Amino acid sequence: METKQIIFTKPNTAELLKHELMRVSGRLVRVKTLFSTVSCGTERANITGNPNVSTSSGASVVFPRTPGYSSSGIVEEVGESVTSVKVGDRVAMYWSTHSEYNILDEDNLIKIEDDSLSMQEAAVAFITTFPLAAIRKTRLEIGESVLVMGLGPLGQLGVKLSRIAGAAPIVAVDPIKERREEALKNGADFAFDPFEDSFADKVKEVTKGGANVCIEVTGVGSGLDAALDCMASFGRVALLGCTRSSDFSIDYYRKVHGPGITLVGAHTRARPEIESHPGYFTHRDDIKAVLKLISGGRLDLKEMIKETHTPEECADVYTRLINDKNFPILVQFDWR
After folding, report:
1. How far is Cα 225 from Cα 227, in angstroms, rounded to an integer?
2. What are the average pLDDT values for consecutive 10-residue runs of the chain, which has 336 residues?
3. Which of 17, 231, 274, 321 is the most buried (most CB within 10 A)?
4. How far apart are CA 280 and CA 296, in angstroms?
5. Under DSSP, is residue 271 helix (H, G, I), strand (E, B) or coil?
6. E strands in 79-173
7. Do 295 and 114 touch, CB atoms closer than 8 A?
8. How far is CA 190 from each of CA 12, 42, 145, 150, 275, rounded to the nearest angstrom?
9. pTM: predicted TM-score of the whole model, two decimal places
10. What's the confidence (pLDDT) of residue 247?
């Protein structure tokens, strides 16, 4: 049986290729993909050949590369040892690929219990757990102020989740005007350009002395440096954005050590694999939490999905991703 799959065959090149599927047995499940979501930062880094797409040291640039990790679909075949899903179940997938069919271990599938939950939103569930984990790790309390640095997909989701978690006020930061406007629609109380005059003073003014929590999603050292200027004493900063270049410096003595700032590594893999505990949930439990929030009407992801494309349009989509600094917040491929 064949499947179509988007592959980065060489730097700056995305192709839709066919290949044979492996046989389903044991704990494996074949899922017919309905929607898969583009992760802008990660996939831009992969297609351009950035070596820092792994937290392991000494990573080298090797092509082809296989993009995608957050999808939804319907179970079509299960191995003999599978117990958690059955043929016909609707599922959210994590660590999947942009592919017509995904074959995954059953642990990488979350059954969607709510029949009214859209498969488009389910395909965003895994990505949503990234800022959710960052918020958990900072131990955000109701009524604390939150600074969200960087308003791509993870930043916008971070704004929404911070509001659900009771943050007040929420300050959204990005140099792109359209993203700031989007963040205000998503629940931010204030939105600032980090390059405007007296930026840090303005953040400290609206937060009455500085942000208690920061979700840093810019992925650049200057973003972290600017965020530290905005923090209250004993503030907590979650390093959610993948800071792929180490070529920057921080005055740790004055910006971290003195005010007692906590820096928390918030890569999505920095979590328990089996058992959740306060501040550190497994991927499965966080995906279930996101699905509950959607079903309960507390989290609306539909409005964040700006474009949907056929897989055949992948070359154009990724060319835009590489070159357009204002690439849409959430883009999906429709595999139906």
Report:
1. 5
2. 97 97 97 97 93 63 95 98 98 98 98 97 98 98 98 97 98 97 98 97 98 94 94 97 79 95 94 95 98 97 96 98 93 98
3. 231
4. 23
5. coil
6. 90-94, 101-105, 109-111, 146-149, 170-173
7. yes
8. 36, 27, 11, 14, 37
9. 0.94
10. 77
